[in-house]
Amino acid sequence: MAIKRQDLFEKCRRFTKAREVMEAGLYPYFRTIESAQDPVVYMNGKRMIMVGSNNYLGLTNHPKVKEAAIEAVKKYGTGCAGSRFLNGTLDIHVALEEKLARFMRKEAALVFSTGFQVNLGVISSLIGKDDMVVIDKMDHASIIDGCRLSHGEVKKFRHNDVADLERVLSGSAGTPALVVIDGVFSMEGDIAKLPGILEVTHRYGARLMVDDAHGIGVLGKTGRGTAEHFGLENEVDLIMGTYSKSLASIGGFIAGSENTIHYIKHFARALIFSASPPPASVAAVSAALDIIEREPERLVRLREITRRMIKGFKDMGFEIGPTETPIVPVMVGENETAFRMAMMLQEEGVFANVAVSPAVPNGKALIRTSYMATHTDEHLETVLNAFSKVGKSLGIIS
After folding, report:
1. Mean pLDDT score across all residues of the chain
2. What dotted CATH number matches 63-294?
């Protein structure tokens, strides 16, 4: 006789929220793009200004980046057929690690197949049952999941609140600790208060890791990220970066002291048990790093665009929070308003992203816009005009 058991898949049948939003014509996810991640993209043949991409320096469609990827496929094939730990380490992996270490001004670097895996692997390998990891409440989901995979104690401090971080650290004297923060917070675009966080972290004998996925290629005189922005590159213990933003591919890396990277290399399950980054991705990142160093005007243009869009949204009366980066959030309030606004913007030829609860607090839904160095003034004017029209229609601005 079969044992009567509740059906595991019943929760799938009960999940109707997404279908309800779809039926209302307000579903803003999994939209299909038919072109490269450029300032202009095409959806169902319609031309759209893209302000939902993390391609900050506009390198994903750069001829030199594509050429490097093609040449790597010709030489190495399409994949490595194994993990870095065994048969999947190519000479170009090692060369990229050396280049990333130099670029980040650290002793060593280690590449992973995705940025998400970097945080899973690094945090879970470093934090054992007698250790503690302390994170900002607004840290990226990959950091949170890395903490869940570790066997240590996990504590949180209020967003970008140095005093609250000190409160957490002062209550755990003697426990080996790692503080993990985003350099640039991915939803609202604000920058971590790195000088104060670093001072408190080191004063209490802890180590600091900065997830700089949205800082590298954006902040710092030469685009090396949040630590360079504050002149603290030699003080931050570990810097994590991804390729899926300014570095024009997919994957990620961790940079730090040689001893620490050597340890992570031998204990990070997300590295050891995952297939190696494919040759095309590795070569594309290497080419992107060269372009960042050779074409500093891209950083200059990105900062001009950032200032213009922040001022433009503020002048129209939108609430955009404390952003100082190319991530410019437009606060709209309720989830349904955000869904409706995204679809109305789409009708105006603007592709923007939506962030709703639980990704943001209840009643704090937003439209997340982000900009590329390759946007033209005409593109930006089109975006501002669309937001003005839609914002007034929805009563968000007057």
Report:
1. 96
2. 3.40.640.10
